[in-house]
Specification:
By secondary structure, this protein is mainly alpha-helical. Helices cover 58% and strands 10% of the residues. It contains 7 helices and 4 strands; from the N terminus they run αβαβαβαβααα. β1, α2 and β2 form a beta-alpha-beta unit. It starts with a helix and ends with a helix.
Amino acid sequence: QRFERKRAEGKNVIMIHLGDHDPEGIDMTRDNEERLVKYSQGVATVTRIALTMAQVEEHNPPPNYAKASSSRFNGYVDNYGEECWELDALEPATLVDLIDSEIRKHVDMSIWQQTKDDEKHERRHLAAVYDHWEDIKDFLDPMI
């Protein structure tokens, strides 16, 4: 429903997907895309940003063994071997950087900066209200 509302607003909807590099985690990207197309009645873009083999090679997380009981085991082993890796073995800061980098590809940075500037201005107002709360309360009390 959220995707439908955004499409109705003329927005391009994208799902950023992070998952384990194992038989189920790799297939989840495909599954997410199929479900979004089916249930949101439109084209959906699913971008897998982690965990990829390049990231496994770069960050060298500890390996596990793919579960032989998985229905996707043989296809996974044919492509990647019997070792698999958990997404949460990456440092949280690495995950934040991956997500931030992907989001920035899709954001109008001038609007983003204007919003940040507006929020900074509003925080100053809130801080001033906090600092002068007793005076504000005394001013408002006769009106209430």
